[in-house]
Amino acid sequence: MTSPPSKLDTFALAKLLKRGTSEHKGNAGKALLIGGAPGMAGALLLAGNACLYLGAGWTILEMLDPASAKACPESPELMIRLASAQIDEVLEITKPDVIAIGPGLGKSALASILLMGVLQYPSIPLVIDADALNLISESKDLLSALQNRNQQFPDQVVLTPHPGEAAKLLGIATENVQSDRLATLEKLITLTQCIVVLKGQHTLFGSPKHPALQCQEGNPGMGTGGMGDVLTGSIAAIAAQGVRHQLNLWESTGIAIQLHATAADSLVRQGVGPIGLTPSETILEMRSLLNKLL
Ligand SMILES: NC(=O)C1=CN([C@@H]2O[C@H](COP(=O)(O)OP(=O)(O)OC[C@H]3O[C@@H](n4cnc5c(N)ncnc54)[C@H](OP(=O)(O)O)[C@@H]3O)[C@@H](O)[C@H]2O)[C@@H](O)CC1
Ligand SMILES: Nc1ncnc2c1ncn2[C@@H]1O[C@H](COP(=O)(O)OP(=O)(O)O)[C@@H](O)[C@H]1O
């Protein structure tokens, strides 16, 4: 019989994010986030705000929606650019420390080109979410590119599917994902050789090298569109800082998962939700909790 997963318990590690007095934005890392097709620009802005408020040195958004690819007055710190098919050039010039792709990405031809470009960019941590996962589930070429990258650069890609996206990746029904979440996690790891975060109540987290862990925080108030986008941006922020703060992608992801769910619980305790709890409020609570952990 399979043993139950251990509890995700990362908060002691978060102390590694404490800043030395001489540190500058270069020490906090550069995160590049890709997504935000027409009608879903908000998904990329939420991921971007999470990345900004969780401490990345630079947060750069490659936005697919031309109408939204401009400075955001509510978050002028975000560097927002129009995504172009010349992704190799963009990556060469930008030299990001971490890339996240997927929030509101859509499934256009441009979205596929961007995802392939990211998968072929070597060595740095990648966070793959939402429509980027759906694209991989529909393309053998993208799945092969992901598997090849993991062979060359192990432990540098994290996938963050919710049960619907996990079902598509495995070609099964969502009910089958939910009826044995641990088995689903293991199948996703075997298929992709990635670090995998299977979201939902009691998020599961595992990798080819690490046995599964379970997040015991979180609540149904988190069931609001955009909450997963916040997790993606948070992982990117912590991984970007982790590069110069001795945290690897596995550790950074664990901190982000637990911080996200704990922040939502904390807000519910304060009477902010569960009904009407927003992803934007969760970002601010995550910032507050993270600073208390240092
Ligand atoms: N402000 C914006 O711009 C926003 C833009 N967004 C962007 O929109 C794009 C498409 O995303 P989306 O939300 O429209 O649909 P999507 O996630 O593909 O599928 C939903 C289906 O999946 C399942 N399912 C999910 N969770 C489950 C669970 N815990 N437990 C069980 N099942 C679960 C469930 O399927 P069912 O079980 O009903 O068959 C559900 O109906 C994407 O790029 C995203 O980033 C969003 O982030 C929102 C804010
Ligand atoms: N009932 C629940 N209990 C705990 N966490 C939940 C619950 N429902 C949703 N979540 C969390 O909220 C987030 C939702 O992510 P996702 O479905 O990708 O949202 P979106 O695509 O709208 O951004 C995930 O982190 C998930 O674990």
UniProtKB/TrEMBL annotation:
Catalytic activity annotation: (6S)-NADPHX + ADP = AMP + phosphate + NADPH + H(+); (6S)-NADHX + ADP = AMP + phosphate + NADH + H(+)
Q: Does the keyword Iron-sulfur apply?
A: no
- InterPro entries from the entry? Carbohydrate_kinase_pred_CS, CARKD, Ribokinase-like
Give yes or no: UniProt keyword Manganese.
no
User: What cofactor does this protein call for?
Assistant: Mg(2+)
Instruction: Provide this UniProt record's keywords sorted from A to Z.
Output: ATP-binding, Lyase, NAD, NADP, Nucleotide-binding
Its GO biological process annotations read: metabolite repair; nicotinamide nucleotide metabolic process
Annotated GO MF terms:
ADP-dependent NAD(P)H-hydrate dehydratase activity; ATP binding; NAD(P)HX epimerase activity
On the tree of life, the source organism's domain of life is Bacteria
- Residue stretches making up the YjeF C-terminal domain: 8-293
The EC code for this enzyme is 4.2.1.136
Residues binding (6S)-NADPHX, per UniProt: A43, G104, H162, D229
Q: Which CDD domains match?
A: YXKO-related (cd01171)
Q: Where does AMP bind?
A: K199, G200, Q201, H202, T203, G228
By its UniProt entry, which PANTHER family does this protein fall under? Answer: ATP-DEPENDENT (S)-NAD(P)H-HYDRATE DEHYDRATASE (PTHR12592:SF0), ATP-DEPENDENT (S)-NAD(P)H-HYDRATE DEHYDRATASE FAMILY MEMBER (PTHR12592)
Q: How does it assemble?
A: Homotetramer.
Function description: Catalyzes the dehydration of the S-form of NAD(P)HX at the expense of ADP, which is converted to AMP. Together with NAD(P)HX epimerase, which catalyzes the epimerization of the S- and R-forms, the enzyme allows the repair of both epimers of NAD(P)HX, a damaged form of NAD(P)H that is a result of enzymatic or heat-dependent hydration.
Q: Which family does it belong to?
A: Belongs to the NnrD/CARKD family.
Provide the protein name: ADP-dependent (S)-NAD(P)H-hydrate dehydratase
Natural source organism: Polynucleobacter hirudinilacicola
- As recorded in Swiss-Prot or TrEMBL, the protein's gene is named nnrD
